[in-house]
């Protein structure tokens, strides 16, 4: 991973406040990633959960799955959110549910990631279907395990069932990796129970997820910001990528021919560098897929957000059949979060792409594959720079 302060705070969870977790860590600074999954979504989700027969919990320790709710808005603050604010949001028009969580950027297995402390009985209802329905997964979390994202495990090389250090930069405790389980919240790569979170020294109840299915998140956030305490931030969870209407990519808002050449040339200079989950420069010893894109586009003066799911929103998504050199190709390869954009590559033309594929490989030119592909992103420098703030 890179230097701890390498990002000004990411786009999906753009919280720019600080708190402490043993040592100085940023509240809900997020990451996620990236490369194509070697395990396909047709396989049973159970294989991503470590054995749960050692938990010692009673069968009723975790409530069964209830009605699933989609989280649309995330609020995070440096300290506990006022109870009266939480109550007010719960009672607001069109709010279907509110889930209070603990949230920081912490260290897990030596990697700096978005970390949440949750109530397994209720938080499970805010996660993707495969994650929500796994009783064993949530029993493991309740028993003190950490659940990490599929990509952190698969491409970050963190083994299921292994003991890993979790906590702040200096004070960490060993926890078992009880599951690979994407939570459906971009840039959050690890989840523990709130009991475990408090033992780690995480802030209590400093964040909440809000489900508002009948209201545009931007509209809700605009009203919400008027009542938030100082230092609190509200952002949309996983904003949708924007498909382009046929022939409707605005003229003058895409890259120039010169910028396209610069991006492609810059990407070629990284050929042979190792895939490193979280890597975005020579300092990390290599690149992951979105780190490679960030590097190449920066050489053309275009700032990209850090992770693939955000980079997919820096322009207009067109069918692969309409892809042009300089477009970014996107895939949803994560079997634990169907539809979530988890891999990205640079299209070179003529069926070729330049990518950082996965752990154990190097940056290379590949034939384009279309399984799980969601299209090509026609990059808008203006949109990219606005999202990278």
Number of strands: 19
Radius of gyration: 20 Å
Measured between the Cα atoms of the first and last residue, the distance is 21 Å
Tally of distinct domains: 2
Please bin the fraction of helical residues: 10-25%
Short description:
With 389 residues, the protein is α+β, with helices and mostly antiparallel strands.
What does this molecule look like?
This protein has eleven helices and 19 strands. Strands 4-5-9-6-8-7 form a six-stranded mixed β-barrel. The chain is an alpha+beta fold and 389 residues long. The chain folds into two domains: 219 residues, no CATH class; 131 residues, endopeptidase domain like (from Nostoc punctiforme) (endopeptidase fold (from Nostoc punctiforme), Alpha-Beta Complex), CATH 3.90.1720.10.
Characteristics:
25% strand; 20% helix; endopeptidase fold (from Nostoc punctiforme); alpha+beta; six-stranded antiparallel sheet; 389 residues; six-stranded mixed beta barrel; disordered N terminus; globular; single chain; 2 domains
Strand-helix topology:
Layout: E1 18-21, E2 23-26, E3 73-76, H1 83-90, E4 97-108, E5 111-118, H2 120-123, H3 129-132, H4 135-142, E6 146-148, H5 150-154, E7 163-167, E8 172-180, E9 188-193, H6 194-200, E10 207-211, H7 217-224, E11 233-236, H8 257-268, E12 280-281, E13 286-287, H9 289-298, H10 308-311, E14 315-318, E15 328-331, E16 343-349, E17 352-355, E18 364-367, E19 373-379, H11 381-387
Helix pairs in contact: 8-9
């Amino acid at each position: 991973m890179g230097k701890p302060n390498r990002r000004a705070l990411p786009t999906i969870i753009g919280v720019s406040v600080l708190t402490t977790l043993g040592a100085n860590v940023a509240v809900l600074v997020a990451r996620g990633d990236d490369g194509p999954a070697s395990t396909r979504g047709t396989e049973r989700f159970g294989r991503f959960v470590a054995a749960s027969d050692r938990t010692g919990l009673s069968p009723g320790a975790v409530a069964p799955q209830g009605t699933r709710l989609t989280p649309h808005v995330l609020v995070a603050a440096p300290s506990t959110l006022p109870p009266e604010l939480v109550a007010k949001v719960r009672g607001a028009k069109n709010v279907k549910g509110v889930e209070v969580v603990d949230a920081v950027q912490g260290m897990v297995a030596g990697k700096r990631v978005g970390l949440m402390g949750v109530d397994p009985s209720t938080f499970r209802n805010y996660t993707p279907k495969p994650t929500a329905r796994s009783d064993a997964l949530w029993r493991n979390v309740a028993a003190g395990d950490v659940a990490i994202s599929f990509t952190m495990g698969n491409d970050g090389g963190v083994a299921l069932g292994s003991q890993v250090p979790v906590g702040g930069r200096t004070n960490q405790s060993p926890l078992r990796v009880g599951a690979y389980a994407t939570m459906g919240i971009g840039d959050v790569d690890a989840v523990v129970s709130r009991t475990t979170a408090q033992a780690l020294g995480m802030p209590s109840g400093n964040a909440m997820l809000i489900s508002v299915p009948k209201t545009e998140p931007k509209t809700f956030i605009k009203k919400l910001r008027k009542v938030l305490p100082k230092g609190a931030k509200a952002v949309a969870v996983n904003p949708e990528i924007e498909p382009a209407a046929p022939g409707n990519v605005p003229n003058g808002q895409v890259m120039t021919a010169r910028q396209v050449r610069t991006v492609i040339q810059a990407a070629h200079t990284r050929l042979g560098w190792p895939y490193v989950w979280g890597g975005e420069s020579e300092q990390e010893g290599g690149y992951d897929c979105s780190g490679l894109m960030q590097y190449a586009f920066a050489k053309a003066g275009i700032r990209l957000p850090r992770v693939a799911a955000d980079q997919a929103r820096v322009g207009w998504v067109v069918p692969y059949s309409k892809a042009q050199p300089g477009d970014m190709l996107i895939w949803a390869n994560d079997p634990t979060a169907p539809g979530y954009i988890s891999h990205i590559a640079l299209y070179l033309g003529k069926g070729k792409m330049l990518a950082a594929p996965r752990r154990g490989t190097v940056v290379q030119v590949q034939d384009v594959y279309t399984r799980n592909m969601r299209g090509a992103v026609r990059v808008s420098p203006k949109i990219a720079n606005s999202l990278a703030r």
